[in-house]
Amino acid sequence: MSNTIGEKVLLTLFGESHGPYVGAVIDGLSSGLEVNEEEMKRMLSLRRPSNKGETKRVEEDEYEIISGVYNGHTTGAPLTIIIPNKSVKSGDYDQFKKTPRPSHADYVAEMKYAGYQDHRGGGHFSGRVTAPIVAMGSILLEALKKKGIEIYVHIKKCAYMIDDEFALHPQVDLDELNTKNFPILNKEIGENMRDLMEKTAEEGDSLGGVIEVMIKGLPLGLGEPWFSSLEGKLSNAIFSIGAVKGIEFGDGFDFADAKGSEVNDGYMMEDGKVRTITNHNGGINGGISNGEPVIYRVAVKPTPSIYKPQRSVNLETKEDETLEIKGRHDPAIIRRICPVLRSMSALVIADLYEMRYGEDALR
Amino acid sequence: MSNTIGEKVLLTLFGESHGPYVGAVIDGLSSGLEVNEEEMKRMLSLRRPSNKGETKRVEEDEYEIISGVYNGHTTGAPLTIIIPNKSVKSGDYDQFKKTPRPSHADYVAEMKYAGYQDHRGGGHFSGRVTAPIVAMGSILLEALKKKGIEIYVHIKKCAYMIDDEFALHPQVDLDELNTKNFPILNKEIGENMRDLMEKTAEEGDSLGGVIEVMIKGLPLGLGEPWFSSLEGKLSNAIFSIGAVKGIEFGDGFDFADAKGSEVNDGYMMEDGKVRTITNHNGGINGGISNGEPVIYRVAVKPTPSIYKPQRSVNLETKEDETLEIKGRHDPAIIRRICPVLRSMSALVIADLYEMRYGEDALR
Amino acid sequence: MSNTIGEKVLLTLFGESHGPYVGAVIDGLSSGLEVNEEEMKRMLSLRRPSNKGETKRVEEDEYEIISGVYNGHTTGAPLTIIIPNKSVKSGDYDQFKKTPRPSHADYVAEMKYAGYQDHRGGGHFSGRVTAPIVAMGSILLEALKKKGIEIYVHIKKCAYMIDDEFALHPQVDLDELNTKNFPILNKEIGENMRDLMEKTAEEGDSLGGVIEVMIKGLPLGLGEPWFSSLEGKLSNAIFSIGAVKGIEFGDGFDFADAKGSEVNDGYMMEDGKVRTITNHNGGINGGISNGEPVIYRVAVKPTPSIYKPQRSVNLETKEDETLEIKGRHDPAIIRRICPVLRSMSALVIADLYEMRYGEDALR
Amino acid sequence: MSNTIGEKVLLTLFGESHGPYVGAVIDGLSSGLEVNEEEMKRMLSLRRPSNKGETKRVEEDEYEIISGVYNGHTTGAPLTIIIPNKSVKSGDYDQFKKTPRPSHADYVAEMKYAGYQDHRGGGHFSGRVTAPIVAMGSILLEALKKKGIEIYVHIKKCAYMIDDEFALHPQVDLDELNTKNFPILNKEIGENMRDLMEKTAEEGDSLGGVIEVMIKGLPLGLGEPWFSSLEGKLSNAIFSIGAVKGIEFGDGFDFADAKGSEVNDGYMMEDGKVRTITNHNGGINGGISNGEPVIYRVAVKPTPSIYKPQRSVNLETKEDETLEIKGRHDPAIIRRICPVLRSMSALVIADLYEMRYGEDALR
User: Fold this and answer.
1) CB within 8 Å: D357 and A358
2) Alpha-carbon distance C190 to A67, whole Å?
3) Which residue of D lies nearest to C237 if distances are taken between CA atoms?
4) How far is C355 from chain B (nearest CA, A)?
5) pLDDT surpassing 80 at residue A157
6) Which among C82, C113, C117 has CB closest to A66?
7) Less Cβ crowding at N or C end of chain B, within 10 Å?
8) pTM of this structure
């Protein structure tokens, strides 16, 4: 199921960067969910390039809902959103078909699809394909919110600069985070990151980073042992993004150097409710949500499109070749990936929620 | 599909730690694969407790193949292996039903299954359930080997001690790795780790670590864009193990502090073949294998079963309670998890291989 | 997976009768398949109303391929086709929301989706949604043809009139069948059926029928024992059409009155090849194609939309009510369903073909 | 998913006729369901050969539940049942590997699995594999009964003899049906059928038939439009049985000769509830249960194992050959298939029930 994800709430993704449209179908969702188009536009605007140094491609994201919504609510039938690709300069990309860009999918696509792939703009591998995920995400996030489930995302790290922990900030800061164009808790660090991104763009280079996600209000019991673990399902969804190269839950890789006595999450009673005293496990035990906030972090590699000369090969002549990329690209996607990760998380949670509570559960 | 994984080659897992058997069914596998029972026993022995300080539970793993093998080869019908649970002391576990062990699945299981779960020995959440995965893995690993695909695993890190890189060792060391009871490249570091594990066991505490996996000889083209990415499929498989809390491919979380110009994998011609000059992406671009070795690392948390007093709650009286665990447990599973990760990787690769090359491809 | 079908080649269906578009996404298909738009238009024209007495709704089927095709070939990425709904008269349908039409999905939809469904024109349950299946089918049928697999469909029965058997006609008649607007082998019977359909339309009534499908040239080995049987997969696909209420393979229900000695398909050698002497099993043994033509028949109920007064209830007042349907409807869909069944069959076969022979097998 | 079926409640089937065990795993089922072993034994006894003229193979069905049940209830973890194959005479079958039995799976299995299949007793294609389905079915049927859902099955037709309609008999007769060794409503017709079966067995021949199933008390709303229709899901499950060659819902193939005005199911109010006046559609509209009894019929072919000489071929010498089957076989499976169809129906309904109402819905 290459482009379809989910067990009950299924998302199917389609479209190529320079084709007529990108889009998605979501199926199996409760009928009667409100579709707030203002929120959809707002979410899409957060994914759009806007900061200095980001791609000059103007993506208006004039989405169209072509099925599954009637009188402003989901109908229970598949919901389809299409977004036209307007600002395309395909000429930019012709060279990459024979001289693949390092660390992009150009080379594997040429080989796997025997040259038939639409290579323009990265084709179906383009980050452009995440736009409909974000549009769908806005509907799911609103529905989950009504069930008391909120998802927060911030840029946690970039070039050794580290943002504050969620726990150090009041709820008001968290709420603001999801409306920010550059979602970061510590303003000063945010300024420094943006400065560095701008500078890096001028150098024709790019940056990676770490994004942190927190899912609050999740009821106990989502996820199943073994192959539908909450960690596994979130991971499979999130590794769909080509730039993601790592994921960790709770203490993650820091567990490697810890002792059990230091990181076990003991239990306590709080207001008649069982709580964990700490949350080293990131809200998940045995693959199942335990009622504490789910926390995970995602490693994002530097955008492979850089403007410095790089070593590549000519697939026709079978000779080494130096590649110089022109065009318009982001020096880092850590800002624009935030609403995508929020939406992806919402998708996985909505699926597990309806699996657990039934087909009308999100209504 | 909680306990079933795969698209064409499907594994279904069953069994509880103190039930009569644990086992697995593998379906959709090519007929005509050799079933080497010596290799199966060898693989199972690597998963068994044996080192000092590990659980005293003697697991003989007297597996029985009850379907799908005829005349020493797979038949094409579902292959089922069952392994009896012999050395069980269920009395040890009765207290955990009402006083859950921190960082275990006890509490979520009690709530999710409304008290009906078999809680003894962790029930279906027990690491014991990985034994049939390893038995199945031995068949898959042999079949993949015949196609030139080899999977190597070592303990990469534990308590700030770091093993050598794969690349620094000759092939002979790699080959030896998969036969080692304590798979590590650097013998001295290995000794230190074992000493620490023993000492930690004596203290009643436990350790985490990082395991590194390399898949060599993988052809280009395994994995699909978006929701069947090679990273996503491996992750979903591997997060099935409750102790796993993170995974990273290639440079993984180190990408966060890098520039594109430092970590892009340029291409070169080598013996008429396209190769990447470096392998920061761990053999995967756009979710698809690129022909280079696939490299990933897995974060393993310290075994939650420790013998120091811990804070918990009494689910019946709804009061805080101090828990002292007795019984037999590993101070670290980083040794025993290695053949499991090798087997899990083989499972994902076998599935993708048959999806790409057809139903008889592994014969 | 309500609106998605397939294991490797997946079709996802979307759209509502009076929404902006109906459409489909096909994913997992080989790259490099030719997309013959003339053939697509021809196939769509066969599904369109045109005969006397059929619905007056003019459906131009001005489809648009919005992803997955580049330079006239499939790219390997999801292929999406959308077809705008132009000739819609939604006012006709408002009464059916509170007074459901007998034997339609109106009532179950109102209850299942809690009134949120798009009820206009039958919404997502409308036969209109089969248009994109036919468009997709044209691509698959062309690809299968190149592999020697041909699918033939005719109206087998209607109101006690029975068409000839496939075996009594030469290949030239079969080839012609797939180009016919009213696909029937015996011209005289065809005339009689059309006369009856016209007459029945004038009476405001409707007719059912039986459609017969033959798949020739199918290699041995498609289908799997138990839950991926060729019969089961074809059935699940074909029962998606609400008007289908039965399916039988080979002798089907006639087996009930037969003895084994009369209907067993013995084997013989023919030109060095194993063949069955008869084909009572319709080309399938144990759920797997045996190399003989696959033959099955589908029972289609009379179109529920009739113009005679019918008993219904008012869902608001909870009182009995007489319903008189106005609008435009087919007196029988047995003609228009033929290209749909051809396309559905192609979809199932393409999926099984790529599962068996690998991801590029249809190229 | 060849041997696994379901979306939430998944059944995985394994075992070969003459291997050590046949068995099944059921996963995703509510925890806390009672496991009534008396009922399980009773159901298994109904599937066993016992009537005169049936196979002499004594199958004791000494099943063992090896996972997923604790204290007499389902645990929520995979439930596995294994049944040893005790009375096996494999020598009987060796000839069929090179001289395939007509209308059996011998030939396709030999070709598809390249000779590696376990051919003894039909291997994985054997009806023997249905025993664990019946064992599982007993648990599901009990759970559904507590939700008011009852499934009734009778032999509807054999050799032109037709049993009474469900509607003509009082509830007491229906209840008795599920306890009968030869489930038929009209005793006289039952006697005649049994006589004919005995006589046919003596002649070394076999018989087919039609089985009818009624599911009462099903709530409205099970099944989804298009590819998860109630008809499609039941069909896919039931065509897993190799002897099944047709299925029809409600009026089924009789619709072919009817007019809409004769077979539309009008609505009426009854005790404040919406009911259909007739039930030509067999309780399903648009693929979704409408609250009326679901009724379907299944065409079963004569058992292919007959004792008369038959034409076959020698796959080694590639020459025609006459085959004479010895051994022990049923002259008709229409009796023994009844508990299997009841169990299969329960499986499909349980899956749809939990998809609609949530993971604990059957508790």
Assistant:
1) yes
2) 38
3) D227
4) 6
5) yes
6) C82
7) C
8) 0.97
Cβ of C116 and A16 within 8 Å? Answer: no
Token pair of C73 as six digits: 């070939």
B175-181, long-range: CB < 8 A, 24+ apart: B177/B152, B177/B153, B178/B151, B178/B152, B178/B153, B178/B342, B179/B42, B180/B46, B181/B46, B181/B50, B181/B51, B181/B335
B55: tokens are 């659980």
Sort out which chain B residues have CB atoms less than 8 A from C77's CB and list them.
Answer: 225
Contact at CB, C123 and A75, closer than 8 angstroms? yes
Q: What is the pLDDT at residue B59?
A: 55
> In chain A, what residues touch D355 (CB-CB under 8 Å)?
8, 358-359
* B286–A104 C-beta distance less than 8 A: yes
Chains that touch A (3 or more CB pairs under 8 A): B, C, D
**Tokens read off for B63:** 């597996």
CA distance C18 to A69: 12
Whole-angstrom CA distances from D185 to D113, D168, D198, D212, D213 are 43, 9, 20, 11, 13
Rounded Cα gap, residues A226 and C247, in angstroms:
38
Give buried/exposed letters for A200-233 (b at 16+ CB in 10 A, else e): bbeebbbbbbbbbbbbbebebbbbbbbbbbbbbb
Report the residue from B28, B225, B355 with minimal CB separation from C359. B355
* C200 min Cα distance to partner chain D (Å): 9
- Backbone phi, then psi, for D283, in 5-degree steps? 75, 10
| B319 vs B150: CA distance, rounded Å | 52
d(CA A269, CA C255): 67
* Closest Cα in chain D to B113: D31
The distance of D175 to chain A (nearest Cα, Å) reads: 31
Report the distance separating Cα C297 and Cα B11, nearest Å: 36
Question: In terms of C-beta density within 10 A (0-12 exposed, 13-18 middle, 19 or more buried), how is residue A49 classed?
Answer: middle
Tens of pLDDT, residues B185-214: 999 999 999 999 999 999 999 999 999 999
Number of B to D CB contacts under 8 A, please give it.
Answer: 170
- Residues of B within 8 A of D13 (CB-CB) are 78
Please provide the size of chain D in residues.
363
Q: What one-character DSSP code corresponds to residue B120? A: G
pLDDT tens column, A292-343: 999 999 999 999 999 999 999 999 999 999 999 886 677 889 999 999 999 9
Q: How many residues does chain C have?
A: 363
